[in-house]
Specification:
Blueprint lengths: L6 E3 H13 L5 H7 L12 E3 H15 L15 H7 L7 H15 L3 E8 L2 E8 L8 H18 L8 E3 L11 H4 L3 E3 L6 E5 L11 H9 L1 H6 L8 H12 L6 H7 L4 H10 L4 H19 L4 H7 L5 H12 L3 H8 L2
Length: about 325
């Protein structure tokens, strides 16, 4: 089974560090533990691997003894998230599980309330702040929406399609990456941040037990924070084909033939998904390069050949365009 390389925008790394930076604490040790070069923080187009992103979150929770990494007015001691997740076990339905989880979260802190709401044929979890405005950071709202949704999806077996995400702020600079983090209609400048789903799902049975919870918590950072790639979209099928064919890199015609569609049909369907064949190919090459540089000592010439470049110089020029940095910065950050 192929495991596609995944990377995360440096904007989300900035958000993850916002609680530490607001307290005046240095972040270099946390970055080093995650294998992230500090120089990347200054590059708007920089990215880190999904594993580095999860490692950074783990390093912060352990170093701060805070499951919410300094984002709330007082720490939520490590184990708080496990307690919230465990409160859902034994609930007969998703509706009861949501009520138990939001109630447990409220018992642990006073800054924000998560409320279960029904509006016509939609059910949702809505965020209401009680603390000072300084606490209402974009990243805190992002991580609360993401983790609450993913936890509830896990509770009912892994899938809980969202109809709409509401955000109580305007589109941030990194909103272009929201499609992978929040895969549904997005509405900014809303009164409250929330996620909404088909209200009929409230009757879904809870499908998890203690053994499943232990397995889930063992890799919770990846489950909660890292984007999950869908398998139905045409862009996902193109990416899967390109990855399967490595080290040969299919062109547009060969890819269309492999997917049993005409070139024009493939281009049209990708355009409807807001992307193109070349963009997907470059994204896969970029992510593959970042993962390889961060986890191995592969020579640049060899990596350039793997990625379909004529030589190392051509690869390095493309990499600088993709990320704003030379490949060596990523090597120093993740080094092997």
């Amino acid at each position: 089974m192929l495991h596609p390389p995944q990377t995360v925008s440096i904007s989300f790394v900035h958000g993850m560090l916002s609680g530490v930076l607001a307290s005046g604490r240095p972040c270099e040790l946390f970055l080093a533990e995650a294998g992230i070069a500090p120089e990347l923080l200054a590059q708007a187009d920089a990215r880190v691997t999904a594993q580095q992103y999860a490692k950074l979150f783990r390093a912060l929770t352990e170093g701060l003894d805070d499951d919410f990494i300094g984002l709330l007015s007082r720490p939520l001691k490590r184990g708080s998230f496990a307690l919230i997740a465990r409160s859902t076990l034994g609930a007969p339905t998703l509706e009861v599980a949501i009520r138990r989880a939001t109630r447990t979260f409220h018992l642990l802190q006073d800054d924000v309330v998560l409320e279960a709401v029904c509006r016509d044929d939609l059910a949702g979890v809505v965020m209401r702040f009680n603390g000072p405005a300084a606490l209402q950071t974009v990243f805190l709202q992002e991580v609360l929406l993401r983790t609450t949704w993913r936890l509830m999806a896990w509770v009912v077996g892994g899938q809980l399609p969202v109809v709409r995400f509401d955000f109580a702020f305007g589109p941030p600079a990194h909103a272009g990456g929201y499609g992978k983090i929040f895969p549904a209609l997005q509405q900014f400048d809303s009164e409250r941040s929330a996620f909404w789903f088909d209200a009929r799902r409230l009757n879904d049975a809870v499908r998890r037990d203690e053994a499943a919870l232990r397995s889930f918590l063992a890799d919770a950072q990846l489950h909660m924070l890292v984007p999950r790639r869908g398998s139905d979209a045409v862009s996902a099928r193109v990416r899967a084909h390109l990855q399967f064919m490595q080290p040969a890199w299919s062109d547009l015609v060969a890819t269309a033939n492999a997917l049993h569609v005409t070139v024009s049909t493939l281009q049209r369907r990708l355009a409807l998904e807001g992307t193109s064949f070349q963009a997907l190919k470059d994204e896969l090459r970029r992510d593959t390069a970042i993962v390889r540089l961060s986890t191995s000592a592969v020579p640049l010439a060899e990596l350039a050949d793997e990625l379909g470049f004529a030589n190392s110089s051509a690869f390095q020029r493309a990499f600088k365009v993709w990320t704003g940095s030379a490949p060596g910065v990523y090597r120093r950050g993740g080094g092997a």
